[in-house]
Amino acid sequence: MLTVRAPATSANLGSGFDVFGVALDRPADVVTVERAAETTIEVSGAGAQYIPEDPAKNTAGVVARELDAPAHIRIDKGVRPSSGLGSSAASAAAAAVALDALYERGHTGEELVRVAAEGEAAVSGEAHADNVAPSILGGFTVVRDDGVLSIDADVPLVACLPEIVVSTRDARGVVPRSAEMDDVVHTVGSAATLTAGMQRDDPSLVGRGMDERVVTPARAALIDGYDAVCEAAADAGATGVTVSGAGPALIAACYPARQRAVASAMVEAFADAGVDARAYRSSVGDGAEIVER
């Protein structure tokens, strides 16, 4: 028997659609695996009632199939489904690391990212790695077809999760299929700025690099109170705010001294819009880790 903790994540970060991701130090999923003749899934915790226990439809179950590592898998959800904080990815990442260790497969972290991405396909329909990469490797990650770049970073973040449900499939459905060249150029500049900010541990650059004009506005329209929350966060000291992953969570960068104020401002702004929310004061976190053997 073996237990792994895998963190929540924020993907895209505005300018890095399907490419950028960052590990958060909280919340997290905890997955326990035990060898078995066939794979079974048991789910508890946040939103457990919405998560399929059929191994063929559960991200962790698909990971077990991909690794040829049947097991009884117990998932304690700390990351709410349909949150924009990589809920399905956290389960897939934890299962990949746990089953690889349990069966002594010896895969590299990057190889496990590809395995866990197949688990993501069970939820989103496509094997995206922008959430599973930081959940496994930690830090800030850049996903390419030919590999994954991981950067250790130390940037304060605030993730604010409203009590709104936005499914990944719906959020992908509103993404524009084309963009004006001026907007493409702007996105490239923002992505480069954000990457430099992560490399330099510079909240100002990271915040400026979140600005994006194509995908973010389309997804923001699905989130009640989005504009007011962004404005409140900026007034409280956030250097940048954007949609976290597919939403509805928002992710903000800030300096350490402003983190508490930004978190409070975002929650209060959602409340003013008639939406309950909670905020997680975080930093760029570590990846999945074995917590018990």
From TrEMBL:
Its EC number is 2.7.1.39. Keywords: Amino-acid biosynthesis, ATP-binding, Cytoplasm, Kinase, Nucleotide-binding, Threonine biosynthesis, Transferase. Residues 197-271 form the GHMP kinase C-terminal domain. Pathway: Amino-acid biosynthesis; L-threonine biosynthesis; L-threonine from L-aspartate: step 4/5. One of its GO terms (biological process) is threonine biosynthetic process. InterPro entries: GHMP_kinase_C_dom, GHMP_kinase_C_sf, GHMP_kinase_N_dom, Homoserine_kinase, Ribosomal_Su5_D2-typ_SF, Ribsml_uS5_D2-typ_fold_subgr. The keyword Transferase applies. ATP binds at R80, P81, S82, S83, G84, L85, G86, S87, S88, A89, A90. It catalyses: L-homoserine + ATP = O-phospho-L-homoserine + ADP + H(+). GO terms for cellular component: cytoplasm. One of its GO terms (molecular function) is homoserine kinase activity. Pfam families: GHMP_kinases_C, GHMP_kinases_N. It comes from the Archaea. It is found in: Cytoplasm. Residues 58-139 form the GHMP kinase N-terminal domain. Catalyzes the ATP-dependent phosphorylation of L-homoserine to L-homoserine phosphate. Belongs to the GHMP kinase family. Homoserine kinase subfamily. This is Homoserine kinase. It comes from Halarchaeum rubridurum.
